[in-house]
Write a structure and sequence with these properties.
This protein is mainly alpha-helical. The protein is built from 3 helices and no strands.
Length: 58
């Protein structure tokens, strides 16, 4: 993957991640409140699943 493609992917990720706080700040707060209540192991599991989903999509 070239440098330009990587920047495009990172930019798209930022756009997608910015949609929830823009469209529904209350839901965004709830997501973070739930994450704060999770244990480190649960957060790592969510990270692993996200990583595997991204690799699968690639």
């Amino acid at each position: 993957m070239g440098g330009n493609s990587l920047l495009t992917v990172l930019a798209l990720m930022l756009v997608i991640e910015g949609l929830l706080p823009l469209l529904s700040p209350a839901a965004w707060r709830q997501v973070f409140a739930r994450m704060l209540a999770m244990s480190d192991g649960q957060i790592r599991f969510v990270g692993l699943i996200s990583l595997l989903a991204g690799l699968t999509a690639l």
